[in-house]
Design brief:
Largest sheet: 2 strands, antiparallel
Organism: Actinoplanes flavus
CATH topology: Arc Repressor Mutant, subunit A
Number of strands: 2
Strand content: 5-15%
Number of domains: 1
Pfam families: HTH_20 (PF12840)
Protein name: Winged helix-turn-helix transcriptional regulator
CATH superfamily: Winged helix-like DNA-binding domain superfamily/Winged helix DNA-binding domain
Structural class: mainly alpha
Radius of gyration: 21 Å
InterPro entries: ArsR-like_HTH, HTH_ArsR_DNA-bd_dom, WH-like_DNA-bd_sf, WH_DNA-bd_sf
Shape: elongated
Number of helices: 5
Length: 114
Protein backbone atom coordinates (compact mmCIF):
# COMPACT_ATOMS: atom_id res chain seq x y z
CA UNK A 1 0.00 0.00 0.00
CA UNK A 2 1.34 3.40 -0.92
CA UNK A 3 1.53 5.97 1.86
CA UNK A 4 -0.28 8.38 -0.47
CA UNK A 5 -3.49 6.38 0.04
CA UNK A 6 -3.34 6.82 3.81
CA UNK A 7 -5.20 9.87 5.08
CA UNK A 8 -2.79 11.50 7.55
CA UNK A 9 -5.45 13.83 8.97
CA UNK A 10 -7.71 10.89 9.66
CA UNK A 11 -4.93 8.99 11.44
CA UNK A 12 -3.84 12.06 13.39
CA UNK A 13 -7.41 12.35 14.68
CA UNK A 14 -7.63 8.67 15.60
CA UNK A 15 -4.12 8.64 17.04
CA UNK A 16 -5.16 10.33 20.28
CA UNK A 17 -6.40 7.91 22.99
CA UNK A 18 -8.99 10.39 24.30
CA UNK A 19 -10.50 10.74 20.84
CA UNK A 20 -10.55 6.96 20.39
CA UNK A 21 -12.40 6.67 23.72
CA UNK A 22 -14.86 9.32 22.55
CA UNK A 23 -15.47 7.40 19.32
CA UNK A 24 -16.08 4.25 21.37
CA UNK A 25 -18.62 6.06 23.55
CA UNK A 26 -20.37 7.64 20.58
CA UNK A 27 -20.57 4.28 18.84
CA UNK A 28 -21.95 2.60 21.98
CA UNK A 29 -24.47 5.35 22.73
CA UNK A 30 -25.38 6.29 19.19
CA UNK A 31 -24.70 9.99 19.81
CA UNK A 32 -23.51 12.43 22.43
CA UNK A 33 -22.68 16.02 23.28
CA UNK A 34 -19.53 17.54 24.72
CA UNK A 35 -21.33 17.70 28.08
CA UNK A 36 -22.42 14.05 28.10
CA UNK A 37 -19.00 12.88 26.96
CA UNK A 38 -17.16 15.00 29.54
CA UNK A 39 -19.08 13.20 32.30
CA UNK A 40 -17.55 9.91 31.16
CA UNK A 41 -14.03 10.99 30.19
CA UNK A 42 -11.60 12.51 32.69
CA UNK A 43 -11.14 15.80 30.80
CA UNK A 44 -13.00 19.10 30.83
CA UNK A 45 -16.00 19.82 28.67
CA UNK A 46 -13.90 22.39 26.79
CA UNK A 47 -11.24 19.75 26.06
CA UNK A 48 -13.93 17.34 24.86
CA UNK A 49 -15.30 20.06 22.56
CA UNK A 50 -11.83 20.58 21.07
CA UNK A 51 -11.39 16.84 20.53
CA UNK A 52 -14.83 16.69 18.87
CA UNK A 53 -13.78 19.52 16.54
CA UNK A 54 -10.71 17.50 15.46
CA UNK A 55 -12.86 14.42 14.85
CA UNK A 56 -15.36 16.56 12.94
CA UNK A 57 -12.64 18.05 10.69
CA UNK A 58 -11.42 14.52 9.93
CA UNK A 59 -14.99 13.56 9.00
CA UNK A 60 -15.23 10.90 11.71
CA UNK A 61 -18.14 12.60 13.47
CA UNK A 62 -20.79 15.10 12.48
CA UNK A 63 -22.55 17.47 14.84
CA UNK A 64 -26.10 18.73 14.65
CA UNK A 65 -27.14 21.78 16.68
CA UNK A 66 -29.57 20.97 19.49
CA UNK A 67 -30.31 24.00 21.60
CA UNK A 68 -27.04 25.40 22.94
CA UNK A 69 -25.08 22.23 22.20
CA UNK A 70 -24.23 20.01 19.28
CA UNK A 71 -25.11 16.32 19.23
CA UNK A 72 -22.39 14.27 17.55
CA UNK A 73 -22.70 10.97 15.71
CA UNK A 74 -19.98 8.81 14.19
CA UNK A 75 -19.79 8.86 10.40
CA UNK A 76 -19.95 5.15 9.56
CA UNK A 77 -18.53 5.62 6.07
CA UNK A 78 -15.45 7.49 7.27
CA UNK A 79 -14.93 5.01 10.11
CA UNK A 80 -15.15 2.13 7.62
CA UNK A 81 -12.56 3.96 5.49
CA UNK A 82 -10.25 4.17 8.52
CA UNK A 83 -10.70 0.45 9.22
CA UNK A 84 -9.93 -0.38 5.59
CA UNK A 85 -6.79 1.75 5.69
CA UNK A 86 -5.67 0.07 8.90
CA UNK A 87 -6.22 -3.37 7.37
CA UNK A 88 -4.24 -2.37 4.25
CA UNK A 89 -1.37 -1.00 6.33
CA UNK A 90 -1.39 -4.17 8.44
CA UNK A 91 -1.25 -6.35 5.32
CA UNK A 92 1.63 -4.33 3.90
CA UNK A 93 3.59 -4.73 7.14
CA UNK A 94 2.81 -8.46 7.26
CA UNK A 95 4.29 -8.79 3.76
CA UNK A 96 7.39 -6.80 4.77
CA UNK A 97 7.91 -8.93 7.86
CA UNK A 98 7.59 -12.13 5.80
CA UNK A 99 10.29 -10.86 3.42
CA UNK A 100 12.56 -10.03 6.37
CA UNK A 101 11.95 -13.52 7.79
CA UNK A 102 12.87 -15.16 4.47
CA UNK A 103 16.06 -13.09 4.25
CA UNK A 104 17.01 -13.97 7.84
CA UNK A 105 16.32 -17.67 7.19
CA UNK A 106 18.43 -17.53 4.03
CA UNK A 107 21.32 -15.91 5.92
CA UNK A 108 21.00 -18.46 8.72
CA UNK A 109 21.02 -21.36 6.22
CA UNK A 110 24.24 -20.04 4.68
CA UNK A 111 25.84 -19.64 8.12
CA UNK A 112 24.77 -23.16 9.12
CA UNK A 113 26.10 -24.55 5.82
CA UNK A 114 29.62 -23.15 6.30
Amino acid sequence: MSTATVDDDLWAAIGDPTRRRMLDLLLADGAGTATTLSRRIPVTRQAVAKHLAVLDRAGLVHGIAEGRERRYRVDDVQLARAVAQLAAVGSAWDARLQRIKRIAESIQARVDGE
